[in-house]
Amino acid sequence: MKKLFLLVVVFFSGVALAQPIDGVTIIIQSARIPPEEVPDFATTLEREIDGLYLEGNYSQALEKARYFMILGLLHNNELLQAHYELFSARALSRQGKFQEAFIHLAQAYPIYTKLHHEQYQFLALETLVRVATNLNYWEEAQNYLTELEKLAQHLKGMYQEMYLFHLGVMHFHENRFGEARKDWEEAEKEAVFYPETRGLTLNHMSRVFLQEENPEKVLEYAQRALSFSTGRNLRWVELVVRLNLAQILSEYLGEEDTSGRKMKPSNTFGLL
Question: How far apart are CA 272 and CA 267, in angstroms?
């Protein structure tokens, strides 16, 4: 009972003051899970959180992630505590709360490294790359990307796709558009893929073809990205694609320079 009281204090001191009933429910439900059932519960919870994340339900994903925090404290389990940090960071990064996400990742990544959980170590690094690029910390992003490459070469499949996606973003930022296109073409070839990454890859390919002034390919990839994202209910990707389409129309139909020629498209993404 004393331990449960301490958990209530910890929980409400930092994360759930606005919703005390939900917080108490999470604590009580977590305390009722038998220790032998915790691994299966954690696996199911991870899938549920990932589904909420892909659908753009970030607030719900953050709520569900708190089960990991409570279970980690109840069972003195570092891995579950790291899961709380990681899945919170991924949702926060999509809410534009990059500094908060970084703080969570700074807690999660060393634990995964110490425990040699390469798949979760990769996901933490991948989110660090995303956070760094959105904050325009390109040097830090490159450092994280170097570590990400090492893990991707070992894990392959979906992880290789995610690495190639971020490598393409880096090359695009550096105006190396041909290399970015090759990176994303290679990423698209991976048979096993993460839905969000695949949708963003298709979207970003349209940006490459915009730079190469190939309107047919611009439209083809933008339409494929939109169809892919709406068909899988990827709300974040759909938002990015629709903003991209608006920007494409603006740049193709928009301002002219002083000589009367259409201005070159930007090499920046609004959202990654």
Answer: 13
